[in-house]
Amino acid sequence: LELFREQLEFLEWSAESFDSGFEGEAKRMATAIRVLVHDTRVSHSVLTQLEVKSSIKYLDTAEPINPKNLATTPGLVIFRMGSEGASYVAPLSDRHLEPSVKRFDEWWTEPVTKDEHLALFSRRNYVLTLSNKEGGAHVDPTLDASYAALTRGNSLGWVHSTSESGEHLPLGSPALA
Q1: 25 near 14, Cβ under 8 Å?
Q2: For strand 85-89 and strand 58-60, is the pairing parallel, antiparallel, or unpaired?
Q3: pLDDT tens for residues 7-62?
Q4: What span, in angstroms and rounded, lies between the C-alpha atoms of 146 and 14?
Q5: End-to-end CA gap in the chain
């Protein structure tokens, strides 16, 4: 229970740092989430060890993916436009959708993002890639091609224009938000 509380404190401090402008802190948040919920053959999550992982409900704030919609779905994020340009942000409590609650497996593995190549990304994809490959706990020399397209190739396809030049600039990566 003490280690559970410590992971929550890590998340609180990291969220404060992220909200203050250090987006890289999302990688440490992903690592804390991995510690709390991710189980493997040899690694047991804190919530599993506390015997509560399958009995609690998980809040789902993602915009549902409509399979009939050909457009991309950012899912967990929205776009913010400001004087410094455009970026992805997680609206959390500001979301206009009614959040739902789900069992862990559905919440963890259900797709929350669809890109222009119809690649789907779940919370599990985001958390494990940020923590295991993007520097949260490990840096891997290669990335999954779909994830690389999403985070480095703007496969959501969203752009914004600058008022000075009218140039169309990609919005960037939604992964940290």
Answers
A1: yes
A2: unpaired
A3: 999 999 999 999 999 999 999 999 999 999 999 999 999 999 999 999 999 999 89
A4: 27
A5: 28
Residue/partner pairs of 139-142 with CB below 8 Å, 24 or more apart: none
Place of tokens 């939604």: 174
The overall longest dimension of the chain from CA atoms, in Å, is 57
The residues, ordered by sequence, that sit 6+ positions from 125 with a Cβ below 8 Å of its Cβ are: 147
User: pLDDT for 60-116, tens place per residue?
Assistant: 989 899 999 999 999 999 888 877 778 898 887 666 667 789 999 999 999 999 999
Least Cα distance to 128 among 38, 17, 49 occurs for 38
